[in-house]
Amino acid sequence: MLAVDDILGPEGRIAARLENYEQRPEQQEMALAVEEAIRAKKHLVVEAGTGVGKSFGYLVPAILAATEDELSEDPTNEKKGASTQRIIISTHTISLQEQLLGKDIPLLNSIIPREFTTVLVKGRRNYLSLRRLQTARNRAVSLFHEPGEFEQLEQLHRWSGQTSDGSRSDLDYMPQAIVWDEVASDSGNCMGRNCPRYKDCFYYQSRRRMDHARILVVNHALFFSDLALRRAGASLLPEADVVIFDEAHTMEEVASSHLGLSASSGQVQYVLQKLFNDRTNKGLLVHYKMRSAQVAVAECLITMENFFQDASNYLKCHARQNGRVDQAQPFANPLSPQLIALSQKIRQAAAPLEKDTQRQDFVSAADRLLALAGEIDQWCGQKVDGSVYWIEEKQMRRGLPRVTLAAAPVDVGPALRSELFDRVPSVILTSATLAVGQNHSFNFFTSRIGLVKAEMLRLGSPFNYARQAELILVQGMPDPSTDREAYEDKLVPMIRRYVDRTDGHAFVLFTSYASMRRAATALSDWFRERGLGLLSQADGMPRTQMLQRFRDEPNSVLFGTDSFWQGVDVPGNALQNVIITKLPFRVPTEPVLAARLETIRAQGGNPFGDYQLPEAALKLKQGFGRLIRSAKDSGIVVILDPRISTKNYGPFFLQSLPDCEPNFEPAD
Questions:
Q1: 3-state SS of the chain: helix, strand, coil percent to 5?
Q2: Alpha carbon distance 429, 413 (integer Å)
Q3: Is the CA virtual torsion 135, 141, 146, 152 positive or negative?
Q4: Where would I find the beta strands (DSSP E) of 293-425?
Q5: 132 contacts 182 by C-beta, under 8 angstroms
Q6: Helix locations, 504-590, DSSP H
Q7: For residues 566 and 546, what is the distance between their CA atoms, to the nearest angstrom?
Q8: What are phi and psi of 198, to 5 degrees?
Q9: Rounded-to-integer distance, Cα 284 and Cα 267, Å
Q10: Quick check: 183 and 207 in contact, CB under 8 A?
């Protein structure tokens, strides 16, 4: 019978397949712990340092557990056909999904003598609906306005006969949102088995593959969308015996964003104008010449504009500085009743239509209007206990500002405990950054996600950080929390000094876009004179494109904010220097964070020590981890924030980092 050591051991199948295979004791220890947790139906938290190879550390025991009935040596074995375990693997980043599905799982599939299927599960709206595509082509004149939209619809029609899976990722371009929205698979616009295209439906083909797969790969956003649906009695994903979260340090934030409420002026306007746009005289109601319903939509649009204008006024005059709203019914809500009435009118308008396929678009629109009415009513009444409510306003390039009513749970722990940890027999949580402080405690992480009982394992990195990395702490810099202007002035020459030291090959990590823009503007001429390429996230280039250019162009320097602190892998000579401009404390006035800190204070805790400090330490640990990605990498990590040396909490940050003796250098 196959065991973990048969695959990962020094004489195992991977060693036999790969040249220059290096045994990783930490990886084997992780795999054995995951194997035991699955067998014993326990939860497990594993911090696996960079270089452990944690994907194999959980994939190997997961595959063996999912294929236990495939005891191939003895086809008469009585266990043959026994119930198999379904395993869900959830990641935060696309790059890790690509690594799992394009590299790691195919290798293991080729060397493990058992049959198993792995499926990447995508959200429904990633798939083309053949019925909706045909409907859109029939109604194109009443749906679209610009010539490019008609052309793209026909491109999608041609592609539909060539695509392998009908998902948007199979396209070599990004379709316009207005076009894709008319042809995408949509739960509210689905006829299920009654659809004339059910047998060749791309989405249901993917569902059938999912139902037969033993290992499902999803992203955190989809997983927590499913969890939110389960609380409402529905689901996207099947039941699982094991759920493995890689990049688990992001769970709290992703869960919070998917377990809340959000309704914007743009959403409501979009749904209404899909029914009738009086400016272009387009929409579903125009196609069917339903004049009375068009008038009702126009009236609802006026109510919508007035309602969100009231929300905007409240934001400016009465909400807290961060947009938080503390009282229920802060302003009148005539919009929800009018959306409900319009929903009923749309259903009535559809009743005389002969074909189910014609009525379906009306039913879908009516359901969406009801859903928006419900979310707005819940927000205005602050009906979701334990949530923080706020208003956001964003100036758009054209037209009125977009106003959003948002809410999120202050504590995701209870929901995760009831819907995940109490429901799934074994949950495995892993990341390179889960423990912080002198004792490398997991308490901050586990308390934030509601995990009460679990096995804990911390595995250090096999890399020699003391030899491979030099940690430089710059002393004498102004304190950014008390003298921001002086700090910003000094930041530019310090970036110049350390970029010059490695002749580029650097990431410069910021905590705000504004600071990044100022530094990029001040340094652009110097970079040009030195022949260094500057890639700034402030310029709007997609992250994957920035990374590719950084790898391809020697001596480049990349300026990045939040998304470049984590999930970015640049091994080799391209990256030799990581400059951290500030300790990554989040702005404490962000609505959800402020509410969490208030709750901790009300419960007698210390908001800074219990939350802000460990959260920032985990983020710093992530930023530090960008530098050393292989045993051959080397370079410097420079921290320009003086507080790591001058404040009493500085040692907490340093103790959270890999073992690396700091070197102190003066700013002057």
A1: 50, 15, 35
A2: 15
A3: positive
A4: 387-394, 402-409
A5: yes
A6: 513-530, 543-552
A7: 15
A8: -55, -45
A9: 17
A10: no
Residue carrying the six token digits 């990029």: 520
| pLDDT, position 76 | 42
Amino acid residing at 82: A
Burial 546-585 (b: 16+ CB within 10 A, else e): bbeebeeeebbbbbbbeebbbbbebeeebbbbbbbbbbbb
Cα R_g (the chain), whole angstroms? 27
In 3D space, the residue among 180, 83, 91 whose CA is nearest the CA of residue 129 turns out to be 180
Going from the C-alpha of 43 to that of each of 15, 190, 430, 456, the distances in angstroms are 29, 37, 11, 9
Backbone torsion region of residue 450, taken as left when φ is above 0, otherwise alpha when ψ lies between -120 and 50, otherwise beta: left
Q: Which helix (H) or strand (E) holds 243?
A: strand 242-245
In this structure, are residues 216 and 237 in contact, taking their beta carbons and an 8 Å threshold? yes
- Residue-wise pLDDT for 9-53, tens only, equals 888 899 888 887 778 899 999 999 999 999 999 999 999 999 999
What pLDDT sits at residue 72?
Answer: 44
Structure tokens at 497: 């000094």
**Tokens at residue 584, please?**
């990554």
| Residue 9: both structure tokens together | 């051991």
Measured CA to CA, the distance from residue 293 to residue 296 in angstroms comes to: 5
- Dihedrals phi, psi of 112, to nearest 5 degrees: -95, 120
419 vs 384: CA distance, rounded Å: 17
Residue 75 has pLDDT above 50, yes or no: no
Q: Pull the structure tokens for residue 539.
A: 């310029």
Query: 456 versus 397: which is more confidently predicted?
Result: 456
Please give the Cα distance from 244 to 218 (Å, whole number): 10
- pLDDT digits 0-9 by tens, 505-525: 999 999 999 999 999 999 999
